[in-house]
Amino acid sequence: MSLSRTTTKIAAGLAAGTTVLALAACTSNDSGDDEDLGGGTSEAEQGSNDEEGDTVVIGFSAPAADHGWMGSITESTRNVADQYGDVDLRVAEGTNDVNLQISQVETFINEGVDAIVLLPFDGAAMTPVALRAMEAGIPVVNVDREFDDPNAARVTVLGDNYGMGVSAGTYICEQLGDDPDAVVAEIAGIDSLPLTQDRSQGFEDSLSECGLKVSNRVAADFTVEGGEEAAANLLQAAPRIDALWNHDDDQGVGVLAAIENAGRDELFMVGGAGSANAMRAIQDGDSVLQATVIYPSTQGADGVKLARLLVQQKALGDLVEVEVPRTIQLYAPVVTSENVDQFIDTAFES
Amino acid sequence: MSESPLDVSDPRGAADRESTTRAERDAVEQGRAGGAAALLRSGLGRNLGLVVALVLLCAVGVATAGDRFASTDNALTILRLAATIGVVSIGMTFVITGGGIDLSVGAILALASVWSTTLATQQMAQDTHWVVMVGAALAVGAGCGLVNGLLIAYGGVVPFIATLAMLASARGLAEIISERRTQIVDVPAFTDVFTSEILGIPFIVILFVVVAALGWVLLNRTTFGRRTLAVGGNPEAARLAGINVRRHTVYLYVLVGVCCGIAALMIISRTTTGSATHGQLYELDAIAAVVIGGTLLSGGRGTIVGTVFGVLIFTTLTNVFTLNNRSISEQSLLKGAIIVAAVLLQQRLASRSNT
Questions:
Q1: Is A87 in contact with A100 (CB distance < 8 Å)?
Q2: Which of B73, B81, B277 sits opposite A100 (nearest CB)?
Q3: CA distance B277 to B280
Q4: A192 vs B: CB within 8 A
Q5: Potential cystine with B100: which of A141, B137, B159, B178 (Cβ 3.0-4.6 Å)?
Q6: What would the pLDDT profile of A167-197 be if each residue is shown by its tens digit?
Q7: Separation between Cα atoms, residue A251 and residue A249, nearest integer Å
Q8: Which of A66, A88, A99 would best serve as a mutation to test chain B binding (most B beta carbons within 10 A)?
Q9: Is B110 exposed, middle or buried (0-12, 13-18, 19+ CB in 10 A)?
């Protein structure tokens, strides 16, 4: 019994890599004309998985919606849950207070929900209570911010921060060709966060493959004001920029404003996260924003789908595996004017 | 120590019973009943509105969530959540009663949580005893409180500004020390104690009860408490009455700082982490709980029982909302309405008792 379980786990781990591709495929097949906002339901065939089964009670908790991306997390999660007649989603108040978030999870445990989907304000801080849920036999789906103990979650859904940097860097390389003197600038998010460091590392690594490097780098704070301030300083420091990567589309609103105020148009900009705002600008094509790389805001919705499969003991469609994989890392695709139509329906409003 | 209070009083009671006449006994009974009525008037009576509010909330909880609300596990969940903010609110009660305000409680809590979970502190705790972490948190809390108190009492900075400055700088310092990372606690001896249960009651809930009880005694039964009321009511009169108002003010801010240290330890044990993001907006939660509890924001009157009720009302409200799957915005709206209603009610009662 234990042997076969271990084997399943290993197999699941191996399958996780494949899943990345599978999910990416789902997204690009998305016709997404049925949802008004970020429903995130891919139209890709899920086989018999969508057929109604036993009712699944899922507890969901996420940080406060103080950022467009985070607001969309809860909204798209609700939308997806609404589409299933057999999902009873309990959404707890979004909070940045770990103490409160812990008590929300405790409440879910007391209620005896079938599964918990948790986007922790702080992964490490929520680990003890997630462990308790798992010990109580409630599978936990960990979204976006990882626990510091692998036993605290049955499934982990992650975005790809390093991959975002790679996607942005690769796109800039393609655009600039082999101009070794090109000036590449970067406006990061909150610099001390591991996710920011991952993004910058990916960006640096992929740029170096075409012989480029980041000439000017500043950090902002994921807010419009912060983006404006950081960009204004950056533009002062660099009289000529060829390409600019801004980590976050919410702060990108401020970055674009600063670029406009400075009357700069010699550069092109790549965004990050993938807000609807940014995508509309890409669609219109009348600003310096040429592309953005996606950090999916539908991770919570994916978490709910996975939790439902877990409880109903169904397998993930298109995989051979009998069990839902242990880790699923989402892809960070580049959105340009050519493919923006595919993505704009699942994008989040800032 | 082996004798409980009951043991002490019982023999005397037995002897009394022999000698007392029926009439005397009746008189005693009556006195007791009168005492109960007086208690009702003073303590319970003053908090009657709060009791009613809490009972109403519980009724709503039972009506909407049934057994999911009215279970021991759920009660403990509410109490565990209430413990942290409760301890902070007890400290806040003293400061507000003493005519001040402390906006920096959340930031002090964050700094204390970070300081007592740095690698160095944890290493020291591993090598010696987990009490080192407790000492660190309490010392940081007391230290911040001391700075607040000195600035306010001797520097002449108004409490609002002094603690606003502390709010900014304590969290800033916490971020610098932790490099804005979450510090994971790996001192099992510490977490074992703080997550233990005594007779099924979580340790941090017991700690909250103990702090509340000590706070009640300190405010209602000691010179310190009477001085606090005097300083908050009329500092000039208090000074003329021979109270060292400045020194007392410093004590009050140190006291609330220590409470933040205790709350930090609770958060550390609940999350097994120390972080500069802990305790966000706790100042508002604590002030709200204190104010709806019946403590005058202008000072001079304070109630620990009211504060405890205030905390329980807000945490129960949060719990009922979570159980019923209600939205964030409705809850905030209702919280605001409760604060306004409580204050209006207090003013009405206060004006009636004056006439």
A1: no
A2: B81
A3: 6
A4: yes
A5: B159
A6: 999 999 999 987 888 999 999 998 877 889 9
A7: 5
A8: A99
A9: buried
